[in-house]
TrEMBL record:
Pfam families: Sigma70_r2, Sigma70_r4_2. Keywords: Sigma factor, Transcription, Transcription regulation. Residues 26-91 form the RNA polymerase sigma-70 region domain. This is RNA polymerase sigma-70 factor (ECF subfamily).
Length: 200
């Protein structure tokens, strides 16, 4: 359990100290997911530019993070706001983009008020995963942290896709029992993210 937490802590400490290799590790870990997220708002060339600017801002605030979950949430919020600002300034924004802008403005206060809760819960989920049997740990970490699909996980571990799905369902049932009632509304949101990938 402690090894990965120690690795995460060491990575964050190196990053905070200005280690460019640590920055590269963080960039590689989160870039793909951020690109998928940004493409909900803007086209690919703009998304690449905004992501680059977001990582520059991350480097400038590298001393402020206590966990990778917190850092990841900061990246998503910063990226999202930059995408929305781009849409606001784009006179040729599509109707779909304008709708996204409206819906996002409606939800912005809610998102900021819950962001730190998601980050903390993310860290706790990782801690609970590390108490599980080794194969369940590996499957959930590949899915949850590395954002790999069921098929990719199955190929890497040399097991069936169905076995991957079964292991995830079992593990998520354990996690659901672990968290307090007042945390279930947040946990359910994260579980929904997991479940949306089960058919991949």
């Amino acid at each position: 359990m402690h090894n990965n937490l120690q690795e995460e802590s060491a990575l964050l400490q190196s990053f905070a100290a200005g280690d460019e290799q640590a920055f590269s590790v963080i960039y590689q870990r989160f870039y793909k997911g951020l690109m998928v997220f940004a493409l909900r708002f803007v086209e690919s060339t703009t998304a690449e530019d905004i992501i680059a600017e977001t990582f520059i801002k991350l480097w400038q605030t590298k001393n402020e993070f206590q966990s990778l979950g917190q850092l990841h949430q900061w990246l998503r919020i910063t990226l999202r706001n930059a995408c929305l600002n781009h849409i606001r300034q784009d006179k040729n924004a599509s109707e779909r983009q304008q709708e996204l802008l409206y819906l996002s403005d409606e939800a912005i206060d809610y998102q900021f008020s819950t962001a730190h809760l998601y980050a903390n819960l993310h860290t706790r989920i990782i801690q609970e995963i590390e108490k599980m049997p080794k194969q369940q740990q590996t499957i959930l970490k590949l899915f949850f942290v590395e954002e790999m699909s069921n098929a990719d996980i199955a190929q890497q571990l040399n097991i069936s896709v169905q076995a991957v799905k079964n292991q995830k369902v079992t593990a998520l049932k354990v996690l659901r029992k672990t968290f307090k009632d007042e945390e279930l509304w947040l946990f359910t949101g994260l579980v929904s993210t997991f479940m949306s990938h089960f058919s991949k």
